[in-house]
Amino acid sequence: MIELAKPGLLEWLRESRPSRLAELYQWANEVRRERVGDAVHLRGLIEVSSHCVRQCMYCGLRRGNHDLPRYRMTREEILDCVRLAEKLGYGTVVMQAGEDDALTGEWIAEIVRWIKRETTLAVTLSLGERQPDELQLWRSAGADRYLLRFETSDENLFRVIHPSSSSGGPDRLTLLRQLKSLGYEAGGGVMVGIPGQSFESLADDILAFRALNLDMIGIGPYIAHPATPLGSGVLRPEIAPSEQTPSSEEMIYKMIALARIACPDANIPSTTALATINKVDGRKLGLQAGANVVMPNLTPVKYRSLYEIYPAKACIGETPTDCNQCLRGQLRSINRFVGEGQGGRGAYHEILSVPPDARSEFVQLQAG
Ligand code: SAM
Ligand code: SF4
Fold first, then answer.
1. Which tens digits make up the pLDDT trace of 132-144?
2. Nearest by Cα to 308 from 81, 120, 68, 143
Protein backbone atom coordinates (compact mmCIF):
# COMPACT_ATOMS: atom_id res chain seq x y z
CA MET A 1 0.00 0.00 0.00
CA ILE A 2 1.52 3.37 -0.90
CA GLU A 3 1.26 6.31 1.37
CA LEU A 4 -1.71 8.42 0.28
CA ALA A 5 -0.83 11.34 2.47
CA LYS A 6 0.62 14.40 0.78
CA PRO A 7 4.31 13.37 0.71
CA GLY A 8 3.47 10.05 -0.98
CA LEU A 9 1.19 11.77 -3.50
CA LEU A 10 3.91 14.28 -4.30
CA GLU A 11 6.39 11.50 -4.92
CA TRP A 12 4.07 9.86 -7.41
CA LEU A 13 3.28 13.16 -9.11
CA ARG A 14 7.00 13.77 -9.70
CA GLU A 15 7.72 10.16 -10.68
CA SER A 16 8.86 9.63 -14.28
CA ARG A 17 10.45 6.15 -14.34
CA PRO A 18 8.34 4.05 -16.73
CA SER A 19 8.61 0.91 -14.59
CA ARG A 20 7.32 2.70 -11.49
CA LEU A 21 4.53 4.37 -13.43
CA ALA A 22 3.50 1.03 -14.89
CA GLU A 23 3.15 -0.21 -11.28
CA LEU A 24 0.99 2.79 -10.40
CA TYR A 25 -1.34 2.26 -13.38
CA GLN A 26 -1.58 -1.44 -12.66
CA TRP A 27 -2.50 -0.74 -9.06
CA ALA A 28 -5.15 1.82 -10.06
CA ASN A 29 -6.50 -0.59 -12.66
CA GLU A 30 -6.84 -3.33 -10.05
CA VAL A 31 -8.69 -0.97 -7.69
CA ARG A 32 -10.91 0.08 -10.59
CA ARG A 33 -11.74 -3.52 -11.53
CA GLU A 34 -12.51 -4.50 -7.96
CA ARG A 35 -14.57 -1.43 -7.05
CA VAL A 36 -16.41 -0.41 -10.25
CA GLY A 37 -15.85 -3.38 -12.56
CA ASP A 38 -14.89 -3.61 -16.24
CA ALA A 39 -17.97 -1.80 -17.56
CA VAL A 40 -17.51 1.65 -19.07
CA HIS A 41 -20.53 3.91 -18.67
CA LEU A 42 -21.38 6.18 -21.57
CA ARG A 43 -22.79 9.62 -20.78
CA GLY A 44 -24.11 11.43 -23.85
CA LEU A 45 -22.94 15.04 -23.78
CA ILE A 46 -25.24 17.78 -25.08
CA GLU A 47 -23.56 21.18 -25.30
CA VAL A 48 -26.75 23.16 -24.88
CA SER A 49 -25.45 26.74 -25.12
CA SER A 50 -22.14 28.48 -25.74
CA HIS A 51 -23.32 31.79 -24.25
CA CYS A 52 -21.55 32.64 -21.01
CA VAL A 53 -21.59 35.65 -18.70
CA ARG A 54 -18.33 34.69 -16.98
CA GLN A 55 -14.76 35.75 -17.72
CA CYS A 56 -12.74 32.64 -16.81
CA MET A 57 -9.20 33.42 -17.97
CA TYR A 58 -8.70 29.97 -19.50
CA CYS A 59 -11.91 29.25 -21.41
CA GLY A 60 -12.76 30.08 -25.00
CA LEU A 61 -16.45 30.57 -24.11
CA ARG A 62 -15.65 33.54 -21.82
CA ARG A 63 -17.81 36.59 -22.40
CA GLY A 64 -14.81 38.63 -23.56
CA ASN A 65 -14.17 36.38 -26.58
CA HIS A 66 -16.08 38.43 -29.13
CA ASP A 67 -14.74 36.44 -32.09
CA LEU A 68 -16.79 33.38 -31.20
CA PRO A 69 -20.26 33.15 -32.79
CA ARG A 70 -22.67 31.94 -30.08
CA TYR A 71 -25.56 29.47 -30.23
CA ARG A 72 -28.26 28.19 -27.93
CA MET A 73 -30.06 24.93 -28.74
CA THR A 74 -33.85 24.87 -28.89
CA ARG A 75 -35.89 22.61 -26.63
CA GLU A 76 -36.75 20.37 -29.60
CA GLU A 77 -33.08 20.07 -30.60
CA ILE A 78 -32.21 19.01 -27.04
CA LEU A 79 -35.02 16.45 -26.93
CA ASP A 80 -33.84 15.01 -30.27
CA CYS A 81 -30.39 14.48 -28.73
CA VAL A 82 -31.99 12.82 -25.71
CA ARG A 83 -33.95 10.43 -27.95
CA LEU A 84 -30.73 9.62 -29.80
CA ALA A 85 -28.96 8.89 -26.49
CA GLU A 86 -31.61 6.26 -25.69
CA LYS A 87 -31.38 4.79 -29.17
CA LEU A 88 -27.60 4.49 -28.91
CA GLY A 89 -27.92 2.69 -25.57
CA TYR A 90 -26.48 5.37 -23.28
CA GLY A 91 -27.61 5.47 -19.63
CA THR A 92 -27.18 9.19 -18.98
CA VAL A 93 -27.45 12.52 -20.73
CA VAL A 94 -25.30 15.43 -19.61
CA MET A 95 -26.60 18.93 -20.38
CA GLN A 96 -23.64 21.29 -20.31
CA ALA A 97 -23.40 25.02 -21.10
CA GLY A 98 -21.74 28.29 -20.28
CA GLU A 99 -23.37 30.31 -17.52
CA ASP A 100 -26.25 31.47 -19.67
CA ASP A 101 -29.04 33.46 -18.00
CA ALA A 102 -31.37 32.66 -20.89
CA LEU A 103 -31.40 29.04 -19.69
CA THR A 104 -33.88 29.92 -16.97
CA GLY A 105 -34.60 27.72 -13.99
CA GLU A 106 -38.06 26.75 -15.21
CA TRP A 107 -36.96 26.15 -18.84
CA ILE A 108 -34.32 23.65 -17.72
CA ALA A 109 -36.65 22.11 -15.12
CA GLU A 110 -39.28 21.42 -17.77
CA ILE A 111 -36.73 19.63 -19.97
CA VAL A 112 -35.50 17.58 -17.00
CA ARG A 113 -39.11 16.59 -16.18
CA TRP A 114 -39.67 15.55 -19.79
CA ILE A 115 -36.55 13.36 -19.82
CA LYS A 116 -37.45 11.69 -16.53
CA ARG A 117 -41.04 11.10 -17.66
CA GLU A 118 -40.33 9.87 -21.20
CA THR A 119 -37.03 7.98 -20.85
CA THR A 120 -35.10 5.80 -18.42
CA LEU A 121 -32.02 8.04 -18.58
CA ALA A 122 -30.19 9.65 -15.69
CA VAL A 123 -29.82 13.42 -16.05
CA THR A 124 -26.60 15.23 -15.28
CA LEU A 125 -26.43 19.02 -15.37
CA SER A 126 -23.30 21.11 -15.82
CA LEU A 127 -24.55 24.67 -16.13
CA GLY A 128 -22.05 26.52 -13.93
CA GLU A 129 -22.52 28.34 -10.63
CA ARG A 130 -26.28 28.70 -10.52
CA GLN A 131 -28.52 30.01 -7.70
CA PRO A 132 -29.40 27.64 -4.81
CA ASP A 133 -33.14 27.86 -5.64
CA GLU A 134 -32.42 26.77 -9.24
CA LEU A 135 -30.29 23.84 -8.08
CA GLN A 136 -33.13 22.84 -5.74
CA LEU A 137 -35.76 23.22 -8.50
CA TRP A 138 -33.78 21.02 -10.93
CA ARG A 139 -33.21 18.39 -8.27
CA SER A 140 -36.97 18.34 -7.53
CA ALA A 141 -37.60 18.06 -11.28
CA GLY A 142 -35.56 14.84 -11.23
CA ALA A 143 -31.96 15.83 -12.10
CA ASP A 144 -29.68 13.14 -10.70
CA ARG A 145 -26.18 14.60 -10.91
CA TYR A 146 -24.34 17.93 -11.22
CA LEU A 147 -20.83 18.54 -12.53
CA LEU A 148 -18.92 21.56 -11.30
CA ARG A 149 -15.15 21.30 -11.44
CA PHE A 150 -13.27 23.36 -8.86
CA GLU A 151 -10.37 23.55 -11.39
CA THR A 152 -7.61 23.83 -8.76
CA SER A 153 -7.58 23.69 -4.97
CA ASP A 154 -4.99 26.51 -4.94
CA GLU A 155 -7.30 29.31 -3.78
CA ASN A 156 -4.98 32.12 -4.87
CA LEU A 157 -4.54 30.71 -8.36
CA PHE A 158 -8.26 30.04 -8.66
CA ARG A 159 -9.06 33.65 -7.76
CA VAL A 160 -6.69 34.86 -10.51
CA ILE A 161 -7.97 32.59 -13.27
CA HIS A 162 -11.65 32.56 -12.29
CA PRO A 163 -12.90 36.05 -11.41
CA SER A 164 -16.02 36.00 -9.22
CA SER A 165 -19.38 36.72 -10.77
CA SER A 166 -20.77 40.23 -10.37
CA SER A 167 -23.36 38.90 -7.90
CA GLY A 168 -20.72 37.21 -5.70
CA GLY A 169 -22.17 33.85 -4.67
CA PRO A 170 -20.62 30.86 -2.97
CA ASP A 171 -17.36 29.37 -4.23
CA ARG A 172 -17.32 26.07 -6.09
CA LEU A 173 -16.28 23.96 -3.09
CA THR A 174 -19.22 25.32 -1.09
CA LEU A 175 -21.53 24.69 -4.03
CA LEU A 176 -20.33 21.09 -4.30
CA ARG A 177 -21.21 20.53 -0.64
CA GLN A 178 -24.63 22.13 -1.22
CA LEU A 179 -25.22 19.89 -4.25
CA LYS A 180 -24.52 16.83 -2.14
CA SER A 181 -26.87 18.00 0.59
CA LEU A 182 -29.60 18.49 -2.04
CA GLY A 183 -29.20 14.80 -2.92
CA TYR A 184 -27.33 15.19 -6.20
CA GLU A 185 -24.44 12.96 -7.09
CA ALA A 186 -21.79 15.66 -7.20
CA GLY A 187 -18.90 15.82 -9.65
CA GLY A 188 -15.84 17.99 -9.18
CA GLY A 189 -12.52 17.99 -10.90
CA VAL A 190 -9.51 19.91 -12.09
CA MET A 191 -7.45 20.95 -15.08
CA VAL A 192 -3.82 19.87 -14.99
CA GLY A 193 -0.97 22.05 -16.21
CA ILE A 194 -2.61 25.44 -15.59
CA PRO A 195 0.11 28.14 -15.68
CA GLY A 196 0.96 28.82 -12.04
CA GLN A 197 -0.23 25.39 -10.81
CA SER A 198 2.27 23.58 -8.56
CA PHE A 199 2.82 19.86 -7.98
CA GLU A 200 1.91 20.49 -4.38
CA SER A 201 -1.49 21.86 -5.32
CA LEU A 202 -2.16 18.75 -7.44
CA ALA A 203 -1.54 16.63 -4.34
CA ASP A 204 -4.03 18.90 -2.52
CA ASP A 205 -6.53 18.32 -5.35
CA ILE A 206 -6.43 14.57 -4.75
CA LEU A 207 -6.92 15.11 -1.02
CA ALA A 208 -9.83 17.46 -1.78
CA PHE A 209 -11.52 14.83 -4.00
CA ARG A 210 -11.46 12.48 -1.05
CA ALA A 211 -12.45 15.05 1.58
CA LEU A 212 -15.45 16.14 -0.51
CA ASN A 213 -16.43 12.49 -1.02
CA LEU A 214 -17.06 13.27 -4.69
CA ASP A 215 -19.25 10.91 -6.68
CA MET A 216 -17.61 11.90 -9.99
CA ILE A 217 -14.13 13.25 -10.67
CA GLY A 218 -13.17 14.90 -13.98
CA ILE A 219 -9.47 15.38 -14.71
CA GLY A 220 -8.20 16.82 -17.98
CA PRO A 221 -5.20 18.69 -19.33
CA TYR A 222 -5.34 22.49 -19.45
CA ILE A 223 -5.17 23.37 -23.16
CA ALA A 224 -4.19 26.94 -24.03
CA HIS A 225 -6.77 28.90 -26.02
CA PRO A 226 -5.11 31.85 -27.79
CA ALA A 227 -8.24 34.03 -27.43
CA THR A 228 -7.99 33.96 -23.62
CA PRO A 229 -5.71 35.95 -21.27
CA LEU A 230 -4.14 32.77 -19.88
CA GLY A 231 -3.73 31.06 -23.24
CA SER A 232 -2.28 34.10 -25.01
CA GLY A 233 0.26 34.66 -22.23
CA VAL A 234 -1.15 38.11 -21.30
CA LEU A 235 -1.80 36.63 -17.86
CA ARG A 236 1.21 34.79 -16.41
CA PRO A 237 0.76 33.62 -12.82
CA GLU A 238 4.18 33.51 -11.18
CA ILE A 239 5.74 30.21 -10.23
CA ALA A 240 9.24 28.69 -10.03
CA PRO A 241 9.80 26.58 -13.19
CA SER A 242 10.61 23.48 -11.11
CA GLU A 243 7.22 23.76 -9.38
CA GLN A 244 5.11 24.23 -12.53
CA THR A 245 3.05 21.13 -13.46
CA PRO A 246 3.20 20.15 -17.12
CA SER A 247 -0.10 19.65 -18.97
CA SER A 248 1.24 16.39 -20.38
CA GLU A 249 -0.56 13.13 -21.00
CA GLU A 250 1.59 11.45 -18.37
CA MET A 251 0.45 13.93 -15.69
CA ILE A 252 -3.17 13.17 -16.54
CA TYR A 253 -2.69 9.40 -16.28
CA LYS A 254 -0.94 9.84 -12.94
CA MET A 255 -3.76 12.06 -11.64
CA ILE A 256 -6.46 9.64 -12.83
CA ALA A 257 -4.63 6.74 -11.19
CA LEU A 258 -4.18 8.58 -7.89
CA ALA A 259 -7.81 9.75 -7.92
CA ARG A 260 -8.95 6.14 -8.44
CA ILE A 261 -6.80 4.89 -5.55
CA ALA A 262 -7.91 7.75 -3.27
CA CYS A 263 -11.61 7.52 -4.23
CA PRO A 264 -12.08 3.87 -5.25
CA ASP A 265 -15.79 3.86 -6.10
CA ALA A 266 -16.07 7.27 -7.78
CA ASN A 267 -17.06 7.51 -11.43
CA ILE A 268 -14.04 8.88 -13.30
CA PRO A 269 -14.21 9.80 -17.00
CA SER A 270 -11.47 9.48 -19.55
CA THR A 271 -12.01 13.03 -20.78
CA THR A 272 -12.37 14.63 -24.21
CA ALA A 273 -9.49 16.99 -23.36
CA LEU A 274 -7.28 13.93 -22.84
CA ALA A 275 -8.48 12.52 -26.18
CA THR A 276 -7.58 15.92 -27.68
CA ILE A 277 -3.90 15.76 -26.69
CA ASN A 278 -3.61 12.12 -27.80
CA LYS A 279 -6.26 11.60 -30.43
CA VAL A 280 -5.25 7.99 -31.13
CA ASP A 281 -4.87 6.43 -27.69
CA GLY A 282 -5.69 9.06 -25.04
CA ARG A 283 -9.14 7.78 -24.20
CA LYS A 284 -8.04 4.14 -23.97
CA LEU A 285 -4.97 4.94 -21.87
CA GLY A 286 -7.14 6.99 -19.48
CA LEU A 287 -9.43 3.98 -19.09
CA GLN A 288 -6.39 1.79 -18.42
CA ALA A 289 -5.10 4.17 -15.74
CA GLY A 290 -8.28 3.95 -13.63
CA ALA A 291 -11.13 5.68 -15.51
CA ASN A 292 -14.53 3.99 -16.06
CA VAL A 293 -16.65 6.57 -17.90
CA VAL A 294 -16.62 8.17 -21.36
CA MET A 295 -18.74 11.10 -22.51
CA PRO A 296 -19.49 10.76 -26.22
CA ASN A 297 -20.69 13.95 -27.85
CA LEU A 298 -24.35 14.19 -28.92
CA THR A 299 -24.29 17.88 -29.86
CA PRO A 300 -25.49 18.46 -33.45
CA VAL A 301 -22.43 18.74 -35.72
CA LYS A 302 -23.42 22.27 -36.84
CA TYR A 303 -22.81 23.53 -33.27
CA ARG A 304 -19.76 21.45 -32.34
CA SER A 305 -17.01 23.79 -33.49
CA LEU A 306 -18.79 26.72 -31.78
CA TYR A 307 -18.45 25.15 -28.34
CA GLU A 308 -14.79 25.97 -28.48
CA ILE A 309 -13.56 25.75 -24.89
CA TYR A 310 -10.08 25.10 -26.30
CA PRO A 311 -8.83 24.62 -29.89
CA ALA A 312 -8.74 21.38 -31.90
CA LYS A 313 -11.16 19.47 -29.65
CA ALA A 314 -11.35 15.73 -30.35
CA CYS A 315 -14.29 14.37 -32.39
CA ILE A 316 -15.33 17.83 -33.59
CA GLY A 317 -16.60 16.69 -37.00
CA GLU A 318 -17.92 13.24 -36.08
CA THR A 319 -21.64 12.58 -35.98
CA PRO A 320 -23.04 11.12 -32.74
CA THR A 321 -23.43 7.76 -34.50
CA ASP A 322 -19.76 7.83 -35.66
CA CYS A 323 -18.67 8.67 -32.09
CA ASN A 324 -20.70 5.80 -30.71
CA GLN A 325 -19.24 3.24 -33.10
CA CYS A 326 -15.68 4.48 -32.68
CA LEU A 327 -15.96 4.30 -28.88
CA ARG A 328 -17.42 0.82 -28.81
CA GLY A 329 -14.54 -0.35 -31.04
CA GLN A 330 -12.01 1.26 -28.70
CA LEU A 331 -13.57 -0.44 -25.67
CA ARG A 332 -13.51 -3.85 -27.35
CA SER A 333 -9.81 -3.40 -28.17
CA ILE A 334 -8.99 -3.09 -24.44
CA ASN A 335 -11.37 -5.85 -23.29
CA ARG A 336 -13.85 -3.49 -21.71
CA PHE A 337 -17.57 -3.23 -22.45
CA VAL A 338 -20.39 -0.70 -22.30
CA GLY A 339 -22.14 -0.62 -18.92
CA GLU A 340 -25.89 -1.19 -18.71
CA GLY A 341 -28.26 1.14 -16.88
CA GLN A 342 -27.59 4.56 -15.42
CA GLY A 343 -24.25 3.66 -13.83
CA GLY A 344 -24.53 5.88 -10.76
CA ARG A 345 -22.07 5.63 -7.90
CA GLY A 346 -22.39 2.30 -6.14
CA ALA A 347 -24.23 0.66 -9.07
CA TYR A 348 -21.53 -2.00 -9.43
CA HIS A 349 -21.86 -3.24 -5.87
CA GLU A 350 -25.65 -3.27 -6.08
CA ILE A 351 -25.51 -5.39 -9.21
CA LEU A 352 -23.01 -7.81 -7.71
CA SER A 353 -25.58 -8.61 -5.04
CA VAL A 354 -28.01 -9.86 -7.72
CA PRO A 355 -27.63 -13.37 -9.26
CA PRO A 356 -25.95 -13.17 -12.72
CA ASP A 357 -29.00 -14.39 -14.67
CA ALA A 358 -31.24 -11.69 -13.12
CA ARG A 359 -28.90 -8.71 -13.61
CA SER A 360 -30.31 -7.38 -16.88
CA GLU A 361 -33.82 -7.30 -15.48
CA PHE A 362 -32.54 -5.67 -12.27
CA VAL A 363 -30.89 -2.85 -14.24
CA GLN A 364 -34.12 -2.19 -16.17
CA LEU A 365 -36.22 -2.20 -13.02
CA GLN A 366 -33.86 0.27 -11.39
CA ALA A 367 -34.07 2.67 -14.31
CA GLY A 368 -37.80 2.64 -13.63
N1 SAM B 1 -19.78 26.60 -17.54
C2 SAM B 1 -19.72 25.40 -16.81
C3 SAM B 1 -18.60 25.43 -15.81
O4 SAM B 1 -17.73 26.28 -15.92
O5 SAM B 1 -18.62 24.57 -14.93
C6 SAM B 1 -19.61 24.17 -17.68
C7 SAM B 1 -18.89 24.33 -18.96
S8 SAM B 1 -17.13 24.57 -18.80
C9 SAM B 1 -16.67 24.84 -20.45
C10 SAM B 1 -16.59 22.89 -18.45
C11 SAM B 1 -15.14 22.72 -18.10
O12 SAM B 1 -14.31 23.00 -19.22
C13 SAM B 1 -14.57 23.60 -17.04
O14 SAM B 1 -14.95 23.18 -15.73
C15 SAM B 1 -13.06 23.49 -17.27
O16 SAM B 1 -12.47 22.52 -16.44
C17 SAM B 1 -13.00 23.03 -18.73
N18 SAM B 1 -12.17 23.97 -19.52
C19 SAM B 1 -12.41 25.26 -19.76
N20 SAM B 1 -11.38 25.82 -20.45
C21 SAM B 1 -10.46 24.84 -20.63
C22 SAM B 1 -9.17 24.80 -21.24
N23 SAM B 1 -8.62 25.88 -21.81
N24 SAM B 1 -8.51 23.62 -21.24
C25 SAM B 1 -9.06 22.52 -20.68
N26 SAM B 1 -10.27 22.50 -20.08
C27 SAM B 1 -10.97 23.66 -20.04
FE1 SF4 C 1 -18.13 30.09 -18.83
FE2 SF4 C 1 -17.69 27.65 -17.78
FE3 SF4 C 1 -16.07 28.69 -19.67
FE4 SF4 C 1 -16.04 29.75 -17.24
S5 SF4 C 1 -15.44 27.63 -17.80
S6 SF4 C 1 -16.10 30.90 -19.19
S7 SF4 C 1 -18.18 29.55 -16.64
S8 SF4 C 1 -18.19 28.14 -19.90
1. 999 999 999 999 9
2. 68
